[in-house]
Amino acid sequence: MAEHSPWFYLTTPIYYVNDIPHIGHAYTTVAADVLARTRRLMGEPVFFLTGTDEHGQKVWQSAERHGLAPQLYVDRILPRFRELWERLAVSNDDFVRTTQPRHVQGVREVLSLLREKGDIYEGSYEGWYCLPDERFWTDKDVVEGLCPECRRPVERISETNYFFRMGRYQDWLVSHYEAHPETIRPESRLNEVMGFLRKPLGDLCISRPKSRVPWGIELPFAPDYVTYVWFDALLNYITVPRSTGSSPEEGMARLWPGTHVIGKDILTTHAVYWPILLRALDLPPPRLIFAHGWWTVDGQKMSKSRGNVVDPVALLDTFGTDATRYFLLREGQFGQDVDFSREALVNRINRDLANDLGNLLSRVTAMALRFFPEGGIPRPEGGERREVEEEALQLLPEVRERTVGFEFHRALAVLWEFVAFLNRTVDIRAPWVLARDPEKSAELSEVLYDLLEGIRLVALHLAPFLPETADKILEALDCPGTGTLSYASHGGFGVVAAYTVRPGAALFPRRDASGAILSEETEKSTRKPPKESSSPSKGETAPATPPAGDSASASPPSAASPEVPVLTYEEFQKLRLATGIIREAVPVPKSKKLLKLSVDIGEAMPRTVVAGIAGSYPPESLVGKSVVVVTNLAPATLMGVTSQGMLLAATVSDGVSLLTPDRDAPPGAGIR
Ligand code: MSP
């Protein structure tokens, strides 16, 4: 039936409202959002659904604990989810609540239909019940009185209930997955499902007596019972399409089959119960189920009892929408578990967002404004493809492909390769040098156009991940915002006829280790440009770390004098110093004072450090020398070379004298 529908119907799990949202909920929803936004940019009609799972024993018990009627309780929790999605810029097209009449009615219709078909029967049940998971288990499943899924104690239960003939469809499901293994991702999850299907499937108990669980959808044929919460919840994926069309059939034909993004803990319900239920209703199985991994915190499972649950609202309060979204999807491979740490988050923000992306935009727009104050940097005439275009064609299609393949971290890594390429292009082509030669004005205009066009394409590909940032970038380039974009109309190189840029606000402020924004004061004082007399970097606004020896004054400052700030111990502790060994030293072209050093500080790659010591040390004399490096200074670009640290040196009468450890110290030894 709907196999050929052009619609991309995408769902997240519907979240239990027995508690407030945590980072795991945000993860699933943001990932789905990136997918939905990418598909929209691809020109596909998208229907993106999320919502809340409001029935069941756990929700009912939470309501009891709060002394509230269940409906009132869920109504009170609901805004926490809705507001979170708004703050995370989640672009869902619909929001389903399982207490909505459209859903309740749909579930009752399905129940009646299955009852009429003979797929639901009444039987008696005696066995083990896991309350937190709301699932029944057999003697075989339960080991040492614990739930095989969540390892919490189970209780013995005996009651009359209604059962869904799940076992009937087991062989069909196995052959379905044999024929369509690509419908469960990642591949390892399919093995898990097939393993589960090796054992005979029991029938599924789909009711709960109201005497035990009074909060749920009443069975149309047995008013003393409510529907099992999972049976109720899974059906949201079709009750919504049924309610959005001109008729249930039309709605289903348009949207179904859907793509489900879920966490690995709810794979069995989605990959076994759900397709079987659909089969019983003569509906095709889902197009795809992708089960992602879990977030741990500093290597530990996230749990309330450990008190280490990461609150997405607190992250948003501190870091904002886009930095939070970026971290969620950049940090780990979707499908694998991933670890949360504040340090990793701050590093990502400072390195990837503030330095790589933020500096690129500020450098290029500042140069465009300076060298073309009237604007109008035209598209260069015809000719051969230039390198920025080549690189864009090479890298950017992969960003889309990786995203639709759920490889979000790879997509972002590839996009950042392009950002790094653009930063290198600035360094290599040095527009500020071209600007000094009137004969090079065409080349200057061409380089800046290419860089701006490259940045525009970064914004386009960034739009699904960081929508606010993409809009800020496009605004600085005076281009239409993300709402009007598509890959087809905006994905080519040379789309913009001429650029007139606007001074843009900084995209991401740098943060200290605690996550606090580094104040402008601190930023300015650490990013003073070098006193290079031949400094060509007027149009360059990239922060410039003072090279060693550059900022020291001849007479030692006195801590008592009012202009010398006094540091608190906490402030001093933020400074990271380490020993390093200089591996390479070369002059920075066109500079009398600067040397470009490659300094091994015990990391995977040596750091590039630009130091103003050429007057005191011939480059070859430095190789193999031990030095002291400030390692957590914001990178700065000096004469087109980005410096990732600073060497300590004393000012002496004839220049500078590098500080060096008094005994052998390995590279990377911390200094206290
Ligand atoms: N209500 C059911 C889903 C019904 S869908 C028809 C449910 N809700 S839930 O609120 O408990 O969880 C929903 C999602 O959050 C799941 O996809 C789950 O994997 C995810 N996460 C819960 N904890 C998580 C982490 N620590 N890390 C990542 N995601 C995790 O299950």
* Helicity level: 25-40%
> pLDDT below 50 for ≥5 consecutive residues: which ranges?
524-564
Task: Quickly name the level 1 CATH class of the domain at 343-499.
Answer: Mainly Alpha
Largest sheet: 6 strands, parallel
Strand fraction equals: 15-25%
Biggest sheet: strands side by side, in what order?
3-2-1-12-13-7
Class based on secondary structure composition and strand pairing: alpha+beta
Approximate shape: elongated
Number of helices: 20
CATH topology of the domain at 343-499: Isoleucyl-tRNA Synthetase, Domain 1
What's the Cα radius of gyration? 30 Å
Measured between the Cα atoms of the first and last residue, the distance is 70 Å
CATH superfamily of the domain at 343-499: Isoleucyl-tRNA Synthetase, Domain 1
CATH architecture of the domain at 343-499: Orthogonal Bundle
Number of strands: 27
Q: What small-molecule ligands were found?
A: 5'-O-[(L-methionyl)-sulphamoyl]adenosine
Describe this structure in words.
The chain is built from 20 helices and 27 strands. It has 672 residues and is α+β, with helices and mostly antiparallel strands. Among the domains are: 343-499, Isoleucyl-tRNA Synthetase, Domain 1, CATH 1.10.730.10; 536-553 and 563-658, Nucleic acid-binding proteins (OB fold (Dihydrolipoamide Acetyltransferase, E2P), Beta Barrel), CATH 2.40.50. The strands form eight sheets. A six-stranded parallel sheet has the order 3-2-1-12-13-7, sandwiched between helices. It has a five-stranded antiparallel sheet with strand order 21-20-19-22-25, with no helix packed on it. It starts with 7 loop residues before the first strand and ends in a 14-residue tail after the last strand. Mean pLDDT is 89; it is low at 524-564. Bound molecules: 5'-O-[(L-methionyl)-sulphamoyl]adenosine. Residues 13-16, 24-25, 27-28, 53, 233-234, 262-263, 265-266, 294-295, 302 line the site of 5'-O-[(L-methionyl)-sulphamoyl]adenosine.
